[in-house]
């Protein structure tokens, strides 16, 4: 039997974050594959110590330029629970819309610029545009819609600044919200077309025995609130997260860390 050969790709560019891929091959067959999505330590926990409550949502928004609302909402919810603050229904709906804006721009980026080039045989979204300009323009327009929602509700598209404990620093202008409607209607139709387009990709046949984990909400799609639930039957309030999950960090190349969630 020949010695196994390991192929190491230390930097994968088309993921949201930093990634590495290690593949071990023996006699022409893949016997092991490991995908690491890693982040260097940025010490945001230390940045937050001793800060005034209203500074927190602005600081954590800098964790990511693509998904800042996730961190803002997490921080706002945690602080509001600690302080016994309940936000009005209108504020909750605006926060959900803000979160939807993030999902639109993030998913459009991921589907059109990070995933589609691999499935269609292009090295990048830019090279894909040479043959599929209309498709790339559709993805960019969808992303722009999400960015505009972030601007209207969050104050700016990257690292929004309008979220605070208890609500927002200011309400959105009615005219700005109404101006979103035509593009959102176009975007709804574009999302349906995106689903039909992506459904025709040549996906590999792969079945993996793993446990899926997400939020669960009784009345709405769980993107901003709900219990932590799993396909294995777990269904607990998010405050009990640390009783059911352990976060593992291990050294990767250089000073990078791999962060993974292990269900226990």
How would you characterize the overall build of this protein?
The chain is α+β, with helices and mostly antiparallel strands and 264 residues long. Helices cover 43% and strands 21% of the residues. It has eight helices and ten strands. The strands form three sheets. It has a five-stranded antiparallel beta sheet with strand order 1-2-3-10-9. The protein has a three-stranded antiparallel beta sheet with strand order 6-7-8, with no helix packed on it. Strands 4-5 form a two-stranded antiparallel ribbon. Helix 3 packs antiparallel against helix 4 (89-120), helix 4 (89-120) runs antiparallel to helix 6 and helix 6 runs antiparallel to helix 7. The radius of gyration is 21 Å and the shape is globular. It starts with a strand and ends with a strand. Residues 250-264 have low confidence and may be disordered.
Q: What is the alpha-carbon Rg in Å?
A: 21 Å
Largest sheet: 5 strands, antiparallel
User: What is the number of beta strands?
Assistant: 10
**Form type:** globular
Low-confidence stretches: 250-264
Helical residue percent? 40-55%
Helix/strand structural class: alpha+beta
Note the run of SSEs as H and E.
Answer: EEEHHHHHHEEHEEEHEE
Q: Kindly estimate the percentage of residues that lie in beta strands according to DSSP.
A: 15-25%
Distance between the termini: 37 Å
How are strands sequenced across the largest beta sheet?
A: 1-2-3-10-9
Oligomer classification:
single chain
How many H/I helical runs?
A: 8
Please state the average pLDDT score.
Answer: 88
């Amino acid at each position: 039997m020949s010695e196994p050969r390991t192929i190491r790709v230390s930097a994968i560019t088309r993921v949201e974050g930093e990634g590495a891929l290690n593949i071990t091959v023996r006699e022409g067959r893949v016997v092991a594959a490991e995908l690491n999505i890693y982040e260097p330590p940025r010490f945001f926990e230390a940045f937050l110590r001793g800060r005034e409550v209203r500074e927190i949502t602005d600081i954590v928004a800098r964790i990511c330029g693509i998904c800042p609302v996730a961190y803002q909402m997490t921080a706002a919810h945690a602080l509001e629970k600690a302080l016994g603050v309940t936000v009005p229904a209108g504020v909750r709906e605006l926060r959900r819309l803000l979160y939807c804006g993030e999902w639109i721009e993030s998913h459009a980026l991921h589907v059109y610029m990070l995933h589609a080039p691999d499935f269609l045989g292009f090295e990048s979204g830019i090279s894909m545009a040479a043959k599929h300009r209309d498709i790339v323009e559709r993805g960019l327009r969808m992303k722009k819609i999400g960015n505009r929602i972030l601007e209207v509700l969050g104050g700016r598209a990257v690292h929004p600044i309008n979220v605070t404990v208890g609500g927002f620093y200011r309400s959105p202008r009615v005219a700005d919200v109404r101006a979103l409607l035509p593009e959102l209607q176009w975007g709804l139709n574009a999302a349906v077309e995106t689903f039909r387009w992506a459904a025709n990709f040549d996906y590999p046949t792969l079945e993996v025995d793993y446990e899926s984990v997400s939020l669960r909400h009784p009345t709405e799609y769980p993107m901003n609130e709900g219990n932590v639930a799993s396909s294995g039957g777990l269904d607990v309030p998010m405050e009990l997260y640390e009783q059911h999950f352990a976060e593992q960090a291990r050294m990767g190349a250089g000073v990078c860390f791999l962060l993974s969630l292990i269900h226990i």
